[in-house]
Each structure stands twice: as structure tokens, then as C-alpha cells.
């Protein structure tokens, strides 16, 4: 499942990154805070794409270990997905709408991403006995 989620998320990250590089200028280029908004978008796309790739790693680890896969790897997949949705999603939305209040929830997405990394580390630690 995580490989499919990774592929969809990575596809979306590339589409949104391309939109940010080519189409966003038309929408927000003339706004007073456009420089900040472009930076938000770039940060969102960067984190989105990196964590899409990490989801593929999670999926491959689960696929390789099958029924012996530690539960922590599933937790990592969930945490990375939720983290991308909240972190990158809030930054994308903030860029398009200018509603800076959304920046208040962005750190929650960052926290979920950190939980994903911790769960991945724990799952990898548990796998060392299977190698």
C-alpha cells in the first residue's frame, strides 16, 4: 500500500512543484508578499517530494519483510502521510490564500514528520535481527 501512496504523493509533489515554478507567478506574482509565498510553496514542495520518496522506502521495507515487518513501519507510513498532508498542505494553502493563520498548524505537520522518522528508526532497529 505504501508504494502506491508514495507514487501518488510523488506524482502530486512534482505537479505542484512544476505549478509553483511556472504557473504560480500568474496567480500571486503581483502580490505584496509574493516573495514569502513563493518561499512557502518551495518549502512545501521540497518536504512533500522528500517524504514521498521515504514512503517508498517504508513500503519496500514492509514488502521485503512481509509478515515479520515491525508495526513501527506502518506507524511511520501513517505519520509521514499525515505529516505531509498537514505540513505541506498548510503551506500550499497558505500560499494560495494568504491566510497566515494556517502557519499555526504547520508545526503539527512537522511533528508528525518527526514521529515518522522516529518510527522508521525504531522499525529499522527492530529489523536488525532479521538480516
Question: Could you please describe the fold and organization of this structure?
Answer:
The longest helix is centred in the middle third of the chain and has 32 residues, at 34-65. The chain is an all-alpha fold. It has helices spanning 2-28, 34-65, 71-97, 106-127. The protein is elongated. It contains four helices and no strands. The mean pLDDT is 95.
* Number of strand elements: 0
Number of helices: 4
Shape, per Cα inertia axes: elongated
Give the amount of beta strand, in percent. Answer: under 5%
Keyphrases for this structure?
131 residues, mainly alpha, 4 helices, 0% strand, elongated
Summary?
The protein is mainly alpha-helical and 131 residues long. The protein has helices at 2-28, 34-65, 71-97, 106-127.
Topology:
Layout: H1 2-28, H2 34-65, H3 71-97, H4 106-127
Amino acid at each position: 500500500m505504501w508504494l502506491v501512496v508514495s507514487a501518488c504523493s510523488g506524482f502530486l509533489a512534482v505537479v505542484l512543484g512544476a505549478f509553483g515554478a511556472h504557473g504560480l507567478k500568474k496567480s500571486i506574482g503581483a502580490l505584496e508578499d509574493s516573495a514569502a509565498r513563493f518561499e512557502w510553496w518551495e518549502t512545501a514542495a521540497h518536504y512533500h517530494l522528500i517524504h514521498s520518496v521515504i514512503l517508498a522506502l517504508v513500503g519496500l521495507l514492509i514488502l521485503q519483510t512481509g509478515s515479520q515487518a515491525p508495526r513501527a513501519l506502518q506507524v511511520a507510513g501513517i505519520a509521514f502521510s499525515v505529516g505531509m498532508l498537514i505540513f505541506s498542505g498548510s503551506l500550499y494553502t497558505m500560499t494560495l490564500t494568504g491566510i497566515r493563520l494556517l502557519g499555526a498548524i504547520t508545526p503539527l505537520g512537522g511533528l508528525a514528520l518527526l514521529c515518522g522518522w522516529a518510527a522508521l528508526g525504531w522499525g529499522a532497529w527492530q529489523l536488525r535481527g532479521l538480516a
